[in-house]
Amino acid sequence: MQGHRKYWPWVAGAAIWTTLPLLFATQTAIWLAYRAQPIPWGNLITFRLADWYTCGLFVPVLVWATRRWPVERRHFAATVALHLALVVVVSAAKIILFEPVRVWLGEQPMGLTRAFAGGFISEIVAFGATAAAIHAIEFYTRYQEREAHSQQLQARLTDAQLRALRAQLNPHFLFNTLNAVTTLLHRDPERADAMLTRLGELLRLTLRADPDHEIPLAEEIELLERYLDIMRMRFSDRVTVTCWVDPEVEQAMVPSFILQPLVENAFEHGVAQSNGLSHVDVQARASSDAASVVLRVRDDGPGPGTAGGQQAAGKGVGISNTRRRLHEMYGGAGSLTLSASPAGGTLVEVRLPLRVTRSVPAEFATA
């Protein structure tokens, strides 16, 4: 496709340079018909084509000069003067070149003086308009290239930011999980061993999902279940967990590793701060207008307004990084809210666009 884009201006130019002489020949034929004179179509078309094709020989010179000395603000006056001088030179060269062509086509010799007197100004106007059109095309092409380059840089910057945020979440999660294993290592070695096994499975799934910023919600739930297995072992009979996903959104694309830090937040600032039996509820459903995926994580701990739950109000790595990831990936279409649950505890709600295909980075959006 790039090859076609490279050559299409020349094809379009050749088409224009052929159409224009045919139109001028037609105009002359109409004038001759109006005066009831015979119309020598062959000679008429040949002469016009020769005239315009001779002009066309100098167009590559104008294109080369436009690319070699583009009109820019820094040297505007000098560059414009240079191109005007070039237009004058190619106009004179065209008249000199076309005079013997006219004679070869059977026309009466005019002489260079008469040829310059009769057509120099019109040639300057024609070449000037052509040069202006070439400058406009080149300016638009450079503008498109700058826009595409800017979008590619922005896409790479966003990708790097997302990967940095994800990379920050991974060691944070790993540290907390290993810390949980440490608390059981001497008290219950068998359970600690089982937790390490589950951790290995979770890390394998996490690394497998790492190249993509988005994965189907069903895969995200599979990751979450491995983490919940670990947390159930850690808190034993102190917590119950329910996880419900609307079948309508199972294949919806969500940011990878989006739920784990939210659930971890519920355990650390909800379950861990509660003395009795606690409950963590995870839900995923479509919004009422079917335009968004709504993810909810609720715990019945002390709540965000209490001393034990203050860090859950958005100061922790998990919540803050998740907010930034949503902003980078979806802009205003993605959001995270943290509030006190009406039933007690903390409610975290994530909303993001409902799609079943991965978003395409800007740098690959055009072929």
Question: Can you put this structure into words, describing what you see?
Answer:
Helix content is 62%, strand content 12%. By secondary structure, it is α+β, with helices and mostly antiparallel strands. The protein folds into two domains: 2-148, no CATH class; 188-358, Heat Shock Protein 90. It has a five-stranded mixed β-sheet with strand order 2-4-5-7-6, with helices on one face. A two-stranded antiparallel ribbon has the order 1-3. Helix 6 (189-209) runs antiparallel to helix 7. It starts with a helix and ends in a 14-residue tail after the last strand.
Short description:
The chain is α+β, with helices and mostly antiparallel strands and 367 residues long. The chain has helices spanning 2-34, 41-56, 59-68, 76-104, 112-185, 189-209, 217-235, 259-271, 317-330; strands at residues 214-216, 239-245, 253-255, 278-286, 292-299, 335-340, 346-353.
